[in-house]
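Teaching note: in complex prediction, the entire set of molecules is handled at once rather than each chain in isolation. The prompt given to students was simply: 'Predict the structure of this complex.' The entities are:
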Amino acid sequence: MSPLNTGGPVNGPPGGDGIRTGVFVCCCGGNISDIVDVEYVAREVGRRPGVACALVHTFICSDPGQALIEQKIAELKLNRVVLAACSPTLHQLTFRRAVSRAGLNPFLFEHVNVREQVSWVTEDLHGATQKATRLVAAAVARTRNLVPLEKRRIPIRPSALVIGGGVAGLVAARDLARRGTKVTLVESRPFLGGRMAQLHTLFPTGEEAREVLRRLMQAVVRDPLVTTFTNATILESRGVVGSFRTRIRIAPRGVNKQLNFAGSAIAACPEETVSEFDYGLGRRKAIYFAYPGCWPPMPAIDWNACTRCGRCVSAGGGKGIELDGKPYEIEVPSGVIVLATGFDPYEPLHGEYGYRIFPKVVTLQQLVRLLDPEGPTAGRLPGSGNGPLRVGFIHCVGARQWEGVHQQQADGKVNDYCARTCCTAALHAALRIRELYPDARIASFYQDIRTYGRGHEAYYERASEAGVLFIRYDAKKPPRVRLDPRGEAPLVVQAGDLLTGGRPLEVPCDLVVLATGVVPHNVSELVDMYRCAVGSDRFLLEVHPKLRPVELAVAGVFLAGTCQGPMNVTETAAAASAAASKAAAMITQGHVEMDPIIAKVDDDLCTGCRTCLAVCPYDAISRDPARKRTIVNEALCAGCGTCAAACPSDAIQQFGFTDAQVRSELAVLLEGAGAGAAVGSEAGNA
Amino acid sequence: MPEPKAEKIEPVAAGASLEKWEPRIIAFLCYWCSYAGADAAGTLRLKYPHNVLIVRVMCSGRVDPELISGAFAQGADGVLVCGCQIGCCHYISGNHKTMARMPLLGRLLVEMGLEPGRFRHEWVSASEGEKFARITNEITEEVRRLGPLNWPGRLHARGVGHGEDLEPWGTPQ
Amino acid sequence: MNAKLRVGVYWAAGCGGCDISLLEIGPRLLQLIEAADIHFWPLVADFKYRDVAGYPDEFFDLCFLNGAIRSSEQEEIARLLRKKSRTLIAYGACAAEGGIPALANLTTIEGIFAAAYHDSPSLDNPERLEPRPVTRSDLGELTLPRLYPQVLTLRDVVDVDYVLPGCPPQADRVWQAIESFVGGKLPARAEAVKLGCTDKAVCDECSLEKRLVKIDQFRRTHEALPEPGWCLLEQGFICMGPATRGGCGALCTKARLACRGCYGPSGQVTDQGMAMVGALGSLLAAETEERARELVDQIVDPVGTFYRFSLASSDLKGMR
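The expected output is the structure of the full assembly:
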């Protein structure tokens, strides 16, 4: 038979074309046989062309059951096997292995579902038997058109590319290197550390974030198996699992290890710009360190701010600064890719709760910078010193939004998801304020308090005990921030107190803190390059949240951290470790096996209309105009069959689901269909 | 038990008794979502009519309109196509192609003489056992109400495949 | 083979274009006349049915039968010619796939009569006269052939040796087929082997360029002038090229007219319309089902567009 198997007899004389099918019907201990007359099914199907045996067994998935199949294959020289049992999602693999053990190609085996889809859902015993008989007979017809197939083996290169140098990327790189995998870690900014570096202390341990980060960064950059690039932008990533090739552009840093007097160089720089590290609250020079203890331990030059005046060069000792550096490109081959591209805090819209209109309205991230002793205000809050500090926290800003209540984001959607980390983070910050300003009056406007994590509830209790006022508001009637009409405070927060029936409250505040949600960092080019699935909340979507939580549908690409959804540092580290573990497992195995149910083009029929190119979700099809051939890339094809359906010449077939195979199944399912075709005219339960 | 394929399909006689007829409906289910959804209906022990016969494909995108017209032409009384929810296709966007094909296909079937209730497409996720049971109940009842389609029988009655078997002109009687 | 070939031509439910297309072979007609004698051709010569009935079986070496079968007369003569021909060729789209006459399957005989004899504004038929199968007159009983409720292809009523698709078949291809026949080089006679065409679709012969963009609006021929050099389907004109058998040289698309599908389905496809739906559905610029529906609603006559020539050979064939 041709590889495409577009032909093949459906109803030849019994055994006439050498097909010898074994049919096995499982009772499933009564689950099937209580409803379906399994003896009848076996008897009727046993009469179909090419069926060499049709047997009933109580539990075919048991060892004796599988042994029976293997024995019959040998004894009767079966070259096709049809099994009627539970759902293939449970045991198809088991039986494929059994069949392989007996020397038969596992893709000449068909598993028919007569339990979940027949005996468990049908009340009419007669109808159930009828249905089961039809399905099994159809499978017999289908298997006559099957051809042996071999799984594709794709070798995996023993190296990994980790995209993102925050805590997720660092943990993944560290874990991969510890397992002996060569890692290339790339970070788009000039410094590693990501958003964790912008924190002061971590909950629930109270450790200093940058100290933890420092230990992590040391472990990574000192490992000889890890190569790190900063100022890196992904230009293009091609290939498939096992053999990715990624082209990366490294922008010039402007500074190298030979710089002797970094501090003097920075002091001499006359240009200042807004500090993004401090969320716009502070300023920095055009040549700068992002934060104390950063890595690489040398400054970088912000070319948008630098005027190339050169004063840093001489102040810095005359060497180590290159103002005319050029970008260069590298190509990184890797077997696997880990995406650790992180998140951005939600930026409130102009005027949202008074943001950008009133200077005393800040985001929680900005508050954390203000409270940081190494931050732009050395840990002092503005507005303190004129009586007790009054702070109002508004929770769920940019999170848990409602259509029609909140303004839509740029893409027309609202952020309807909970951002998870902000409740604990807000209470953590509130307690810090109380620590610094013991007589501070703190109010928390919330929808729900979600201090869900281990050790987090304590923050809620301590905040309550510390006198933080909790005011619950209706999600559809968010609080409003206004100038205080009485002039006693800079601002007032007006809210309906839900727990007292919506009684209107007005709380004067020196500072209003918006506990903002998170959005994924914009990686639309990477999403296109890797064809990542994206959820409706814009975060990257895993294959299965429980069974395969760190894998993307694209084989060989793994998710680490907040690119996948809101999570705190603890959860991010766990997720990154999981991704590294999965990636390392793939590398250790050395190859990945993929099902052979892929598509193939028949050159004799292909016209070059290229409809198939337009429909493939994996860009697995290409056209060679010179040789007039359309080719399916066997490594990229995932086996959906969409191209086979789209082809107007029926020139593409999908192994295992060719038109001939499906049509032969339909022909038997529709035997006798039409008016007057009696239900089971001869059928009946014995 | 269905007889082996009849050599000649008997045309439907006018007023033939239909009391023994049962709808024969083919359902194309995608393995990752809707097939699993049908399994979920089974796990919940929900009940639906035995008239819906399931054909498994890997993705609803595989369901070629030619297979659907072929099914009706071979005697199906109804056809159901189920895929993953939009945005959740296991193969990223296979179900988008299905979604785009179905309106055109449906319109053609109606213009060729089929009642709209005989053809349906739905998005069923792996956890929607109840939805699957409800849909199969609905389509079976609708097709039952519409009666047998018997497309091949009716075409045969109108001469397709054999003409009216006239003797050639001038043949001696 | 006799010294001179015996050739027959008959038109069933057709327009006469296929008969004329045989003349399109031009000066080669003279070569044909040297090699062959016409023993039956209603358009051209005055042979009677009873003459044909009187011929021995397999009298014709080659018989071209064009037009679909939709009346008792057409079926009778088709069966007669089958008996009297060694080689019977279903000539043209109507005989092969049903052609445009097959679109009558979307209406009833009553509907046809109403349009032809009663409802058209240019008619003057106050007595509501209609053709009747039997009429008694002074000359005796006069009969008309019976109209069938369903338009059939030639293969529905007789075995066919070869098929020459096209509306009409393209002249050079017809000549190639005749030459092959004369030279004894026709492919082995299996069931209805297709001649004068390729196995691939029209796109294979078409030189318009694909830009791999999706269709965001459908347009009809009279609504816009196509941009030259660019695939017509991508421009929104429904070009049946991808689902249509080639061999015509893509004459229409060369003239910037969208292919209408007259050579029927390509390869081993049996349902040309459904093959096109599978492809077209995959090319719509539609992110939602509503948008897909909006686009599809722009198509004015789906059956007439996708099954213009092949309704009678499709899976469902249309039935009213």
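Point out the following to students. The interface with chain A takes residues 199-204, 210, 212, 214, 241-243, 246, 266-269, 275-276, 278-279, 281-283 of chain C (CB under 8 Å). Chain C has a mean pLDDT of 92.
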